[in-house]
Amino acid sequence: MAACLASSAFAVSAERPLEGYARRVWHTEDGLPEETVQAFAQTPDHFLWIGTTGGLVRFDGAQFVVFNRENTPAIHENSIFALAAAYDGSLWIGTEGGGLVRYRRGVFRTWSAKEGLTNGYVRAVLEDAQHDMWVGTDDGLFRVRGDAVTRIDDGNGMPPISVHAIHEDRERTLWVGGYHFFSVRDGKAKEFLLPGGLSDNVKSILQTRDGTLWVGTVGGLQQMPPPSPGRTSAFTRVKAIHSTVRSLREGPDGTLWIGSIGDGMTRYHDGEFTAFTAPGTLPSNTVLSSFEDTERNIWVGTQAGLLRLSRTAVSTFSLPDAADPDFGTIYEDRDGALWLAGTHLYRFSGAGALIHSFPEPLAGVRVRNVFRDRSGVLWIGTEGHGVFRLVGGRPEPIPNTQPYIRAFAEDHDGSIWIGTDGDYFRWRPEGTTYYELHESVRALLVDRYGDLWVGKDRGLSRVHAGQRVENALTQRLGGEKVWAIHEDPEGGLWFGTRGGGLFRSKAGKLAVYTTARGLASNSIYQILEDRQGRLWMSGPNGISSVSRHDLELAGEDPSYRPAVKLYGTSDGLETTQMSGGVQPAGCITAKGEIWFPGSKGPVRIGADPGGPASPPFASIYRVVADGRDAATQGHVSLAPGDGKLEIHYGAIRLRSQERVRFRYRLEGFDPEWTETPGRRVASYTNIPPGHYSFRVLAFDMSSPRDTSEASLEIDWRPHYYQAHWFFVLCAAILAGAVWGVHKLRMRQAHERFAGVLEERSRLAREMHDTVIQGCTSASVLLEASLSVRNSTPEMRQELLENARDLVRSTIEESRRAVWNLREKPPAPGGIGAHLAEVARQIGSQAGIPITCESIGAPVVVDQEREHHLLLVVREALNNAVRHGHPRSIQVEVRSGRRVLSIAIVDDGCGFDPAALGDGTSGHYGLVGMRERIEYLDGSLEVKSSPGHGTRIAITVPVKSAPPKARARENVEHSG
Which strands, in side-by-side order, build the sheet including 367-372? Predict the structure, then answer.
């Protein structure tokens, strides 16, 4: 092929429609930052990357995301000249003046002069078989291995060069082109001189699968066939190409796509060059780059926009002298020719579409539809002139008919049913029968049983044996606009409505299909069925096909999704708006081609070339939690917030996203899946803190069970008052508080009880030390007065007066013991003087000498302490007098800075302290004394033995009030 091409002057054939490809163009108004597109690459995550003069663009088939110097600090210049996707998923970006940039895992990094790249104008980037990156600049060829940059030219037989193109062939030879053209292998460079000399500088290099090396230059295209025995390979000029070849691309079928400056795109296939230029195919004749993605779309970058060419079975034909019609019909005649009714009536055959004119009286009349009956008569429906029969080549009008004709149908007996804008009637040679006046008819069908079904703008009618009959089906469709009727080979009846979806009646059962159950549209203009049992339906948003068997399964199981394929603008439709309301609004030809009338011309669907083998790749683009952006991958931990979550998702499908559908669910919050065809944002409010998993499934309508999934694990941290530990802590605090209150109440109860016991003990002590002691003494004096009856009256009188004084004193002490005398200040004189007075009184009464000696400075103590000490000392003296029978008693009071010591010593008979100390003997004096001293935080020591007298030593603090006294006060106050 190459030799033949080189030896002959091939002319490029004139441009004709690029059949088999759907065309889609994007401009700045569609999202491109600038019109000039210079480079393409596709990374393993399936995103398409586009280099423009206005920045780097990422495209998923639906939306453009732009990276430039305004939003990406690593990009210092917006003009992106070269792109290359590496095996590790990174993208290498060559800029015009901003050096080399790498994008990997969301991070941009720049290589410039500091890293060893001596020139910032990067014209070519290539990854070789060893995964080294080769970088061509305006001044030098560089290799990037790891993070190290090495200059390759300016040595090893290669002069300093300006590099515009790099390519590695199948033998791993590196071809480098610019103002020089070199091959580099095993570190050795070899220069090639192309026809045209050094002025023919290289812009693009490609080796095709047959081994031919193609080189695009400023002056055209060069090619060198692979070496063969007995023949020397050399570069020769391809004479068919004369302009600068900026891009070269080979398709999977061996087609060579040649992009040039000024001459558009040229396709070379099977030895033939075909040019495609602007404005018919390209947005501009300056082609700067081309690329074929994994879905077999061809991308063309031009100076005036981005072009995508996608393989398709759909073709839209332009009709001569045709305006955009508001209706149209297509009908296949017996000879295979098509009648196309629109602005004019066209007859379409392999030679093309020609305007057809009937003789008078139809000359110049606008035709709506045609129909040929079994006898061969052609029926013609017009707009405003009624219906005609073509008999013997001359149109014959049918009298007394409504002027606007919409549909034809032939009965089993050969009679013709005709639907109009105002009625429908049955024509037979012997006469015409009219039905349902003032009804606008949209479709007619005679079923296998001979019943006529009439689709109207106000419901459905059935005519059986010449009579209109009503049943459950006609009643159910009474409120629908029935525009299409079809009977399948199994006798099922299908009704397409304008807005109400698709209805199927079979064996007395009715099923309804809408977009909610997977249908492409709820408005159906025509229903056709091909030999494979697929139903084809047209509507306002394109053409769809679905297996009838799939629909029947969906009719029995509401959860079953039928596989629906939608054909739209990306499949070659000039517009998705099909024509309907006048029949036939579509047909299937004897060759199996599907035809539908569209507002831009008739549409033909041939053999399907097949679409992408994999489902669209679901992706999560953005996560916004309470107005803050969060990560979109891995395990995301969100700060405490108000529970407002917004997740932007999408799918990567570069061919077209018209058929892409989504289902998403936030596990842990959503009870079931949500399906949406349009909006690609999942919004949530009032989400409580916790762990969630967001899952989004993407699928094509034509394969709903073949899905891809993107997911995101989300941990929404709670506010501290929402955390589990906080509730546990609160519960623990509450339990502790309850327990504390309980313990406090119990302690208070115990203290009150102890206080009551203490008060009882105190009263017992006071009664013992005051009332009982006083009464005992008074009793002794009274007995003494009785025993001295024979004595002088003066002695008796003295004893009685002493008894009286003692009773009065006892009463006063009892009152003091009851009221405790807390409000009165201590009596003057100090504790020593008061003890001396007590000693004097008791000694006087008992007739026993009692001495009281104070050592140290006089000490004044609080009244309660003094009261207790006086009672203890008096109890000790009384006990000594009554039980010890001493000859004398000594009381010694020692006053210190902190301690007051009192010693009571007698020379009486003594006793055994162990026998009296616990009160079991019935005597509580010593027990009361100990309790009082312990109450004062002091100590009491008793030393005695029978026959040796008794010594009682008391030690109490003199400064602060006793703790036990304070506790007692608190208990009394709280009570």
Answer: 367-372, 378-382, 387-391, 394-397
Indicate if 502 and 370 belong to the same structural domain: yes
d(CA 737, CA 332): 92
Helices and strands of the chain, counted as H and E runs: 11, 70
839 domain-assigned:
yes
Collapsed DSSP state (helix, strand, coil) of residue 876? helix
Taking only the tens place, the pLDDT of each residue in 324-369 is: 666 689 999 999 999 999 889 999 987 678 999 999 999 989 999 9
Say if 303 falls within a structural domain: no
Residue 644's identity, in one-letter code, is: K
Q: Of 825, 782, 824, whose CA–CA distance to 804 is shortest?
A: 782
Within this chain, do residues 460 and 506 fall inside the same structural domain, yes or no? Answer: yes
CATH of the domain at 855: 3.30.565.10
Q: How far apart are CA 27 and CA 282, in angstroms?
A: 12
Domain match, 680 and 729 both? no
Secondary structure (3-state) at 304: coil
CA distance 61 to 52: 17
Residue range of the domain that includes 333: 316-605
Residue with tokens 């926009």: 305
Strand partners for 697? 663, 709
* Angle of CA points 788, 792, 796, to nearest 5°: 55
pLDDT at 13 over 60: no
Domain boundary, last residue among 797, 819, 841: 819
Q: Is residue 971 situated within a structural domain?
A: no
CB atoms within 10 A of CB 272: 12
Phi, psi angle pair for 445, to nearest 5°: -150, 130
Q: State if pTM tops 0.70.
A: yes
Q: How far apart are CA 579 and CA 584, in angstroms?
A: 10
Last residue of a domain, which of 763, 785, 819? 819
Residues 886 and 742 in one domain: no
- Select from 148, 285, 165 the least CA-distant residue to 216: 165
Closest of 233, 222, 227, 301 to residue 265, by C-alpha:
301
Asked, for residue 307, whether it belongs to a domain, the answer is no
pLDDT in tens, 603-645: 999 877 666 668 999 999 999 999 999 998 888 899 888 889 9
Statement to judge: residues 715 and 753 lie in one domain: no
Mean pLDDT value across residues 698-715 = 92
The enclosing domain of 352 has a CATH number of: 2.130.10.10
Sheet with 703-716: strands ordered across: 635-638, 703-716, 690-700, 660-667, 674-676
Distance CA(599)–CA(484), nearest Å, equals: 18
45 and 100 inside one domain = yes
Task: Classify the C-alpha dihedral 382-384-389-391 as positive or negative.
Answer: negative
Q: Which residues contact 931 (CB under 8 A, 6 or more apart)?
A: 761, 765
Structural domains of the chain, count: 6
Residues 144 and 56 in one domain: yes
564 and 524 in a common domain: yes
Instruction: Give the pLDDT of residue 771.
Output: 63
With tokens 């061809």, the residue in question is 298
**Alpha carbons 598 and 608: distance in angstroms, whole number:** 20
Asked if the bond preceding 279 is cis, omega within 30° of 0, the reply is yes
Question: Which residues on adjacent β-strands are paired with residue 612?
Answer: none
> Is 747 exposed, middle or buried, given 0-12, 13-18 or 19+ CB atoms closer than 10 A?
exposed
How much of the chain exceeds pLDDT 90, in percent?
57
Closest CA to 521 of 503, 494, 542: 542
Range of weakest confidence among 196-210, 330-344, 690-704, 753-767? 753-767
Q: Which residue has the tokens 């052609």?
A: 378
CATH number of the domain bearing residue 663: 2.60.40.10
Percent of the chain past pLDDT 70, that is, above it, reads 87
- Long-range Cβ contacts of 30-35 (<8 Å, 24+ apart): 30/64, 31/63, 31/64, 31/66, 32/57, 32/64, 32/305, 32/306, 33/57, 33/66, 33/68, 33/78, 35/302, 35/303, 35/304, 35/305
The Cα-based distances of 607 to 313, 315, 572, 585 in angstroms read 6, 11, 14, 21
